[in-house]
Design goal:
The chain is of the alpha/beta class. The chain contains six helices and seven strands, in the order βαβαβαβαβαβαβ. The chain has one domain: NAD(P)-binding Rossmann-like Domain (Rossmann fold).
Amino acid sequence: MELGLKNKVALVTGGGSQAGFGKHIALSLGKEGCQVIVVDTDLEGARKTAAELKTLGRDAIAFKADITNREEVNTVVKAGLDRFGRIDILVNNVSGASSSPFTETTEEDWHINIEINLKGMWYCCQAVLPHMLERKSGRIISLSSTTAVRGYPQASLYSAGNAGIIGLTKALAPEVGHSGISVNVVMVPGVDDVDITASEKQDIASIVVFLASEAGGDLTSQTMLTGAW
């Protein structure tokens, strides 16, 4: 099935981890014809993902950025627009997690669980939306966690951050939907995700690709569950 992604431009955060969701998502979008902007705090990892995309015949660039830093996010988005002239798809994939009893949570726990997961999404959406609104087209797909709706002991802040991703998506989707922009969430397994298989990661990537495509364009404000639920 033709997904209509050829020559679209996708910005994928957290694409540098060679074992994470971001790399699988970036490569899956590349296989469907997307040019990809790979963003990560690990520049070497982002470069490795970009190099694999280039072997697929795609134009790909890697950037180092901390998504909790608005200036760095804006710089990456501007550079991506300068390079490609457009950003059609934003995938908010960066996630931070720490666990501890609620009464022992710290400011650092708050930064890891709330700012990285939720504030970073906010900055990225704000950075790309003016361009998408001007073009009256775009896809925003954010990864959240099942911890947002299922209780896990000692994961209160992580749960709150991921629930915030869903809430922000639900509110943003009708606000920008009239401009042809869809905003959706893909939920991945909770805090104990170290045993996720490559095939399960590919399942998650495939859902993201579908939501980014023309076929998934009518879906918005949705929270998609994976087989790992």
